[in-house]
User: What shape does this take?
Amino acid sequence: MKKLYENPLITRYSSKEMANIFSPDTKFKTWRRLWIALAESQKELGLNITDDQISEMKDNLESIDYDMAAEMEKKFRHDVMAHVHTYGHVCPKSKGIIHLGATSAFVGDNTDIIVMKEAMNLIKIKLVNLMDKITEFSLKYKDMPTLGFTHFQPAQMTTVGKRASLWLHDIYLDYNNLIDGIKGLKMRGAKGTTGTQASYLNLFDGNHEKVKKLDKLVAEKMGFEDTYPVTGQTYSRKVDFDILSVISGIAQSMHKITNDIRLLQHLKEIEEPFGKNQIGSSAMAYKRNPMRSERIASLARFIISNLMSPAMTSSTQWFERTLDDSANRRLVIAQSFLACDAILEIGINIFDGIVVYENVIKQHIENELPFMATENILMEAVKKGGDRQELHEVIRQLSMEAGYQVKELGKKNDLLDRIISSDKFQLSKDELENILEHKKYIGRSAKQVEEFIADYIKPILNKYKEYVGIDIELKV
Assistant: This one.
């Protein structure tokens, strides 16, 4: 029996790796690593802390008694103090120096930064793998002509690969924003209760340089080059907004890409993977719904809408801090990353097995190209001595008649037959077919794809080549 709510991000969508990053184990082990880093730094700067105490803390890094911590939290109504006492219970020699001079935000905020950085690095790997798959698709179909659409109406020609390069470019922009976000992330550091470092200044007898050094040492031991120069009790909540803006940007790109795929699947030009035993509809057995793309769209909207929370949290903080950020951040940060991880995994899966129906694409071109090519036909006829203004009126009338055949009678576009039959145009069938050769209408599409990928994407894929090629197995 399952009587309690289960988070579908865990049970259905996100990877084990991302779920692990936001797990209690990761969170509370990071708290303990921070307490160890603080103790080591304080010892290096002259406080009376022994190697024996630090060794004891390290030896018990992973022995977290969650039952005891829960009992303590129920008693204290304070999660950090519950874990200070739980850690101290297995570290009797060092319990007196755990959390020395620190406030709750020392472990809470610094852990959030550390965890988000780890999550961003995992997102980076997924993003690079998606770039690799779209790159392969773009190059494979770089010169396959297809109808371009504006306003979802047939416009001019492009290629299947060129359209995919537009998706890839959006992902490339997201990648750059993600890298900037990772590089710009700093720790909150050892700043004390209201960010003044007063407790540490007291511990080091008014020695400002040692307090500054403590802040830097803790950051370095946790793998960061620097800390934010000033904070209140917390780091600025604008940081959360900035990070989740990057995640939202990825969601926006994935929504747009999968919208396009859904429309193309409706046109039967492209189809996302469909499993051998997959069922499209419980009633309509023939259906092959773009379920993966629809799931991405659904989760992407969840991520995009989540961005409102850190914006409101940042703007409504009071002075050095208020606690009304806490419950909101526990939900929004983790779930945005879990959902982003999910949509990237699904995206990789889609491009790993996406199908292109070339004959359907050709058929759609044949239906529309005669209309699109009227200007070219006109010019060739003028070259043979025709009157441009007279021919323009003739081809306009023939186009209307052909349009009637298509729209009112449901027949094929017979504009070319009408032009051949007309005594106004001195063009043979072969000459018209030459004018209508598809590749004459795709411009520099193939070259643009090659140049973009060579100049911008390949350097990224080469940089992370050891991470490219991950296997994705969707849970559902």
Summary: Strands lie at 145-150, 153-159, 270-271, 355-356. The CA atoms of residues 114 and 390 lie 73 Å apart. Residues 104-140 form the longest helix (37 residues). The mean pLDDT is 94.
